[in-house]
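Batch manifest, entry 17 of 40.
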Amino acid sequence: MNDMTVSGRASQPQVQLSNRETEVLALLVKGCSNQQIADCLGIKFYTVSTHVKAIYKKMGVHKRTDAVVEALTGNILAKKLNSNSCFFPLHFPPQFA
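Output type: structure tokens
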């Protein structure tokens, strides 16, 4: 028998994202493109794409919107950001705020 959440969905194991993946996911939730994320974090576009693919794999999703929904409904960001004060609050350049 599956453990069920309040919403009626089967609960999923805790997603273990790296610190950088958490930053990337937070920017995905804000609606940033891969290029905007790269510019914001000072990394290459290709590196962002690699992080996004790793996030999808760890979260068991195949689309950006699914990753955002899981991040918001599963409280993934809140748990990670609150457990490591260097990520909370995230500071975004003005164009991302």
